[in-house]
Amino acid sequence: MNNFENYEKFLEILDEDLAKIFDYQKEYICCQKGCSLCCERGDYPMSQLEFNYLKEEYNKLDDNLKKQINENIEKLKKENPDSYTCPYLTDHKCSVYSHRPFVCRAFGVLTEDSKGNPSFPFCSTLGLNFSKIYDKEKNHLSFALVKQNNYKIFPRIFRLSNKVLMNLPLVKEMGIEFGEVKKLKDFL
Ligand code: SF4
Ligand code: SF4
After folding, report:
1. pLDDT tens per residue, range 134-177
2. Ligand that lies nearest to the alpha carbon of residue 46, given by its number in the listed order
3. How far is residue 75's CA from residue 78's CA, in Å, rounded to a whole number?
4. Which of 7, 75, 96, 97 is the most buried (most CB within 10 A)?
């Protein structure tokens, strides 16, 4: 299960592709250092392999950070909300950034839902990424707003769900086994 060597190779490829995706959509993206809203509202589904990898980084953290994270975890377990701040977020920074799962790597881009419809990053409702082309009433991408705002590039929807990424032919070729996918809370 802990096939981190191949998983890390796969992450390198994925990160290169994601960098191109973010660059392509940069007109619509306003992520800035210090913004951590996407880690403050969610359920962060990930696979067993991704969680094991995240924990590998956690194990290297200093005791103070570990203490903060463990307190966050205890609070989360006690309150048990559906949507929550990720316990690995400390001082508005991801404490396990290099080992974060797929779902976090794709934060902020326009993806698709299980039916193939555009899925906006949640911060589009807060005036952030893609907000100028988000039709709130129809909960959909508005081509009229793309034109109205004089965007040069048409927005593209990328297929970046866990299901899509974990079933890529390359993943199979590399022999990567992700294991069960669950919400972060259910791994803790
Ligand atoms: S693992 Fe890191 S990037 Fe992902 S939600 Fe938690 S703090 Fe944010
Ligand atoms: S995706 Fe949205 S919430 Fe997350 S850092 Fe970017 S602007 Fe902020």
Report:
1. 988 888 889 999 999 999 999 988 999 999 999 999 999 999 99
2. 1
3. 5
4. 96
**Terminal Cα distance for the chain, rounded:** 18
Phi, psi of 21 (to 5 degrees): -60, -45
94 lines ligand 2 (CB under 6 A): no
Ligand 2 centroid distance, CA of 34 (Å): 9
Q: Which residues pair with 111 in a beta bridge?
A: 119, 158
Q: Residue 156: which residues within 8 A CB-CB, separation 6 or more?
A: 24, 25, 110
- Residues 85-121: pLDDT tens digits? 999 999 999 999 999 999 999 999 998 877 777 889 9
What's at 70, amino acid-wise?
Answer: N
Among residues 48, 42, 29, the alpha carbon closest in space to that of 109 is found at 29
Tell me how far the alpha carbon of residue 145 lies from the centroid of ligand 1, in angstroms.
31
With beta carbons less than 8 A apart as the criterion, state whether 131 and 125 touch: yes
Cα of 100 from ligand 1 centre, angstroms:
6
Decide: 108 in ligand 2 pocket, CB within 6 A.
Answer: yes
Helix (H, G, I), strand (E, B) or coil at 183: strand
Q: Phi, psi at residue 17, to the nearest 5°?
A: -65, -40
Structure tokens at 127: 């005036």
As a whole number of angstroms, the distance between CA 136 and CA 82 comes to: 23
